[in-house]
Design goal:
There is one protein chain. With 236 residues, the chain is an all-alpha fold. Helix content is 73%, strand content 0%. It contains 14 helices and no strands. The protein is globular and about 50 Å long. The termini are far apart. 46% of the residues are buried.
């Protein structure tokens, strides 16, 4: 029982660090928490390690390691746990959306994300927004995508804030800049990179220097940022 309680606390801390809902995004600490919770027997934690490797959160994308941890999550019982646990439902949605171990099924993924969202799991709001934005497992619906992103973004979910920045990019520059800035303050790498590009578009020396500063922050974990920063420095 103690191990279960410890694992749940570690998962909670890992999620806070991964989503940026505390002191900002800290993928390294998030990874350590999930690995330790996995050691204590948590199938959900194994699923989140797979997510980290799949998305390259604080590390290089590694499909082989993503698959390994996804297989471990299934072997440890995440499918059974997904019948009643909102976080496990999200992990199942992720596994079905990626097709690492379980067969890819966007409709099942959407269904698990929706059930998890209805139980108010923060990450599920963002994932559901993405499914609506892309039209995966459901009809494409930008209004619903925005609505679910906002549910998570208003609770300081960095990835949802970044996704809103992208959603508004070509229709509302002010909103786009606002949400990229919110996510960038939490050290979300893609948001930092996109905010730097938005600064560059303003074509002033001050904004170019700010872009260099922002890109320098996220180059250790963001390949695109490295390339942009290299080109930008060569132009100076």
């Amino acid at each position: 029982m103690m191990s279960q309680s410890e694992a749940e606390l570690l998962i909670s801390t890992g999620l806070t660090c991964m989503y940026g809902c505390g002191d900002g995004v800290d993928y390294s600490r998030s990874f350590d928490c999930f690995v330790e919770a996995d050691r204590l027997g948590s199938a959900v934690a194994s699923g989140f390690v797979s997510v980290i490797y799949h998305l390259g959160f604080g590390c290089q994308v590694d499909a082989e390691m993503a698959s390994y941890w996804a297989e471990k999550s299934v072997a440890m019982g995440v499918v059974e746990q997904g019948r009643y646990d909102s976080i496990a439902m999200w992990v199942l949605g992720y596994l079905y959306s990626q097709g690492h171990v379980l067969p890819r099924d966007d409709h099942l993924a959407f269904s698990f994300f929706k059930r998890s969202s209805e139980l108010d799991f923060l990450g599920a709001h963002c994932s559901l927004g993405y499914m609506y934005e892309q039209g995966r497992g459901t009809s494409k619906n930008i209004y619903e995508a925005e609505r679910y992103y906002l549910k998570a973004a208003n609770l300081n979910h960095a990835s949802a804030q970044c996704n809103l920045g992208f959603l508004y990019e070509h229709k509302d520059e002010v909103k786009s800049f606002f949400w990229y800035s919110r996510a960038a303050k939490q050290n979300h790498p893609r948001a930092v990179c996109n905010l730097a590009l938005a600064q560059l578009a303003r074509h002033t020396g001050k904004n170019e220097m700010e872009s260099v500063r922002l890109l320098s922050i996220c180059t250790p974990v963001h390949t695109r940022a490295k390339k942009i920063l290299s080109r930008l420095l060569n132009d100076f």
